[in-house]
């Protein structure tokens, strides 16, 4: 008996959809799978015309232009749809992965699509009701100074300093701000060494640059030149995973002012104690 002949099966064809990322009509390469038994072989590429549904869209030029390795179906008109077929290793396994464009998902359809801005911003966005994680506060600052204004500043830190901050090993008791060469620095802030850093550890009391806009630096510089005004850190905290310090612009209190502050604080505590006993 002769060997039964296997019927020829046309290879399936996968089309890459055109998303709203495209701006100018053009050609988009469509991939087709190799015939049965040649899964490890090269893909055949066929140029197809893309129908652009959105005016002013952009189309990448074809990355690959090759002659078909076997017979493929004639070019067809492709219409913009919200989904796109993944062209990664799943196609070689015969199981194309369906991803979605425009919904903020991680689409792996090649170099055409990147993460949406909404997703990038969402990674650092604070959850509703989530408060800043306070690392330490300078309680002596409000006792010794009359705070006139405050400003939130970023901090230029190294990795071992961030690790120590997360462990709460920092003191602001002797810290102050200084304007130098058009920049503002935090002086006297003691961030303990991180034990796991070994020889890559930091200097615990080194000057640390505050990250400010130019107009904020100018404001600090002008106020620092006024007689009796000082830049003092009030507290240090983490905000959306980044270390921040709240700087205050204060005027030093006289001895009698400090006594008045202590009297007010004492009377306030007595009032609160009496309210709790009711």
From TrEMBL:
Keyword RNA-binding: yes
KW Signal (keyword) present: no
Pfam families xrefs: SmpB
Compositional bias ranges of the Basic and acidic residues kind: 257-267
Alphabetical GO biological process terms: trans-translation-dependent protein tagging
Gene Ontology, cellular component aspect: cytosol
PROSITE patterns per the UniProt record, alphabetical: SSRP
Domain of life of the native organism: Eukaryota
Region Disordered, residue ranges: 257-278
Signal peptide segment: none
InterPro entries for this protein: SmpB, SsrA-bd_prot, SsrA-bd_prot_CS
GO function terms (MF aspect): RNA binding
Keyword annotations from UniProtKB, A to Z: Cytoplasm, RNA-binding
PANTHER family: SSRA-BINDING PROTEIN, TMRNA-BINDING COMPONENT OF TRANS-TRANSLATION TAGGING COMPLEX
HAMAP family: SmpB
The name this protein goes by in its record: SsrA-binding protein (Small protein B)
């Amino acid at each position: 008996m002769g060997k039964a002949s296997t019927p020829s099966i046309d290879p399936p064809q996968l089309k890459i959809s055109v998303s709203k990322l495209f701006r100018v009509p053009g050609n988009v390469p469509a991939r087709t799978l190799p015939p049965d038994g040649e899964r490890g072989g090269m893909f055949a590429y066929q140029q197809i015309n893309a129908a652009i549904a959105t005016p002013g869209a952009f189309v990448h030029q074809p990355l690959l232009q090759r002659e078909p390795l076997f017979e493929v179906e004639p070019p067809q008109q492709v219409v913009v749809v919200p989904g796109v077929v993944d062209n990664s290793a799943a196609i070689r396994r015969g199981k194309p992965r369906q991803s979605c464009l425009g919904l903020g998902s991680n689409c792996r359809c090649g170099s055409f699509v990147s993460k949406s801005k909404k997703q990038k911003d969402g990674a650092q966005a604070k959850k509703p009701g989530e408060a800043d994680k306070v690392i330490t506060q300078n309680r002596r600052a409000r006792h010794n100074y009359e705070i006139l204004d405050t400003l939130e500043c970023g901090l230029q830190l190294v990795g071992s300093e961030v690790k120590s901050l997360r462990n709460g090993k920092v003191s602001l008791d002797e810290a102050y701000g200084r304007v130098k060469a058009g920049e503002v620095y935090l002086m006297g802030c003691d961030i303990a060494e991180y034990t796991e850093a070994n020889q890559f550890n930091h200097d615990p009391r080194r000057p640390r640059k505050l990250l400010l806009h130019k107009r904020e630096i100018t404001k600090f510089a002008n106020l620092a030149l006024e007689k009796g005004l000082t830049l003092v850190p009030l507290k240090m905290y983490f905000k959306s995973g980044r270390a921040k310090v709240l700087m205050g612009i204060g005027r030093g209190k006289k001895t009698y002012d400090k006594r008045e502050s202590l009297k007010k604080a004492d009377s306030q505590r007595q009032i609160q104690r009496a309210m709790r006993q009711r």
